Amino acid sequence: MPPSPLALVIGIDGGTFDLIDPLVGRGLLPNIERLLTASASSRTTCTWPAHTAPGWSTFVSAAAPGNHGIYQFYDTQDPGYGARITRAGDLGRSSAWDWLAAQSYTLGLVNIPMSHPPADLPGYQITWPLERTLRHCRPDSLLRELAAARAHFQSDLATMFRGDMSYLDQAERNVEARIRSVRHLMTTRPTDVVMVVLTEADRVGHHYWHYEDAEHPRHEDAPADSGWERALTRVYRALDTAVGELLALVDEDTVVTLVSDHGLGRGRYAFSVHQVLEEAGLLATETGAVPADGTASWFADGGRRVDFSRTAVYMPVPGSYGLNLNLKARQIRGTVAPRDRDRVTAEVTDLLGGLKGPTGDPVFRAVLPRQEAYPGGNGERAPDLLLVPADESVLPVTSLTGELWTPSPQTGLHRYEGIWAQRSPRVRPGRLPGTIPLTDAMPTLLTDLGAAWPQDVDGRPRTEVFTEDVPVPGPARHLDRPDAVRSVAGPADAPEEPGEDDYTSSRLREMGYL
Length: 514
Hints:
This is Nucleotide pyrophosphatase. The protein contains 15 helices and 21 strands. It has helices spanning 17-25, 30-37, 52-61, 65-68, 96-102, 142-148, 167-188, 200-212, 231-247, 273-279, 341-353, 370-373, 441-449, 482-489, 502-511; strands at 7-12, 40-45, 107-113, 123-128, 137-138, 193-198, 255-259, 263-266, 269-272, 285-287, 300-301, 304-306, 313-314, 322-325, 364-369, 385-389, 394-397, 405-407, 412-415, 417-423, 430-437. It has a 9-stranded mixed sheet with strand order 5-4-3-6-1-7-20-2-21, with helices on both faces. Strands 13-14-16-15 form a 4-stranded antiparallel sheet.
């Protein structure tokens, strides 16, 4: 029997207690129930926007987006209105993997969003690429090893929902395949710390929510014998089986953390923020497709495209809940002079701050300048303005034609509250009142593990969950120095940064992200 890791982190992308607690109450998630019963747990406040990219980056860095600099799958401040994919090197600070490597811990990291390309870390990695590549593991031979052991799984991008509702069956198989890989790696390549992220609850929740939610405005009966009316239950039961298999590989002394990047809930409406801006004279369109100059595909729709030479404000990336001013000397076709910045900002704030949805309720509770929304040392890559939703069932999109308000393309949408639980012999079980920041999850894990972290993080350990006076090993001043960690865990190579390609765009578009 291989040695048990010191820590095991199980990530559930889009995990929500709104689904988990009722299913536990019905006795349908026995393994998750067993873990929660022995754990301290809490709902978490995640990131604005509630999104995979900033969410997992926040967890692994214990820092808010303004301090780590990742806001979406694509760069939200491309001066040429392009679609530069965000990669691991865009994390503008060190992460827990750097800190642990600098303290001689070995790592097994599998399918963690925003982790590509693989870094030169002690142990092994299978990254989460947002591009078509076979170079997403370290050591380089790892995928061949898994294939030979019949324990290989495809990258998350390759297995995303593609508009075919038979995906539910595939999602269950994807969970099984990922756990086969992790089981093989944990038994043949033992490491001190293991983390795996399972993304299928997010994928299924986006596209099947309305079948199981009888109160959803688009609720419909599932086709006979499809099982779609139990889609959310089915995917969580598959995750429960996975959690049980992972728990069987560790002993009672292993620190086990269950965490999500954000939650998920009912999605009702989409509205075109670009059409609202165009009606107000803040954005202009013209006839034509996307020009062959690197402009992102989402700036064209239905035979129209954004005319940046006459546009003052635009949403840089779908799903970013952000707006950019088209500033002169920053954007290549900028129109807003520095002296007009405050005036245009006030105009946009008044316009969208007063926007009402189909129900007559406000859509946004605030329109924040990035200095307020994203304080920290890496805020320059953030959108200029953040739209903070008052109604999380409404999704701003970038369409240029059609109705202003439409049913959301995803019937389940991200939520600001996620999940966290931690089990160890030193933790007092029980659900904490209220919420904790997602930034606190990693320092709490590291405290339980006896590992330090730098001073410049936003999170703090939740010492109230421990049954004894557990020493708090961090922050450690030496981990603040880039040379203390980057020499151990710097990127293995620096490949050319990819822009938009048809494969990546089509996968994300079919998921409803673009």
